[in-house]
Amino acid sequence: MNTLEGKRILVTGASRGIGRAIALGAAAAGADVAVLARSAETLDAVAAEVKDLGRRAVPVVCDVTDPARLDAAFAEAADGLGGLDTVVNNAGGFYHSGPFLELTQGDWERTRGLNIDPTVQLLRLAGAHMAANGGGSVLNVTSIAGLGGAPRLSLYAVCKAAMVSLTKTLAVEWAAHDIRVNAIAPGWIDTKLTSGFTSHPQVKEALQQEVPQNRWAAPEDVADAAVFLSGDGARLITGAVLVLDGGLTSQLSAVARGLLGVGRAAA
């Protein structure tokens, strides 16, 4: 059920971390992959790894914050693979974190310009392409930061929340075109984006202890979910947000857990 044999997939932000893992996971499952990122050198390395798995690879150098280049890059990917069955919106990140009142309008514009504007543009391109070619699927990589309050990550969180809303809205709008739209919301994943936390052993351990499974996830954990949602085994799944956080967002808050413990002790 996890085979992607014959599928053609575009992955953005594919040169490292979660994007690279999804690209390689898709190739291992039988898909041909167009990999898109800013760095030609690292992108070529990922493309070579895809080819080593026996699949076609189309490297597309593109800064997703450049709208004109993104239009052309999408066309290159579609032409290079002879069409696209799945598009994975993975490129994103944050420039600044801190108290909301200390963040500037410029911080917002840069964060939105990296996370939301390219996602909206790619969704337009992917939707039109798939509607004209009999359907497909879109997978948006969001974050648990977009599912609730995220102090000091407000700008990033609101962008990820917008991706969740777009996922659910377009799943309904595009169902008649046989286009599935889903999202993955990772928790703490050990990547370069989270290196500011993982580089401090005490911080890394403190964050890990809040996760019921008591571990940091690897990019490959996200890739496994992406492969499943991109395949025919998920043919009835659309509008879903698959949370990959080891149970982090399912538990009570620290304060509530403390009160629960006091209550149990009293009983």
Automatic annotation (TrEMBL):
The keyword Oxidoreductase applies. This is NAD(P)-dependent dehydrogenase (Short-subunit alcohol dehydrogenase family). One of its GO terms (biological process) is fatty acid elongation. Keywords: Oxidoreductase. GO terms for molecular function: oxidoreductase activity, acting on the CH-OH group of donors, NAD or NADP as acceptor. Gene3D superfamilies: NAD(P)-binding Rossmann-like Domain. SUPFAM superfamilies: NAD(P)-binding Rossmann-fold domains (SSF51735). Belongs to the short-chain dehydrogenases/reductases (SDR) family. NCBIfam families: PRK07231.1.
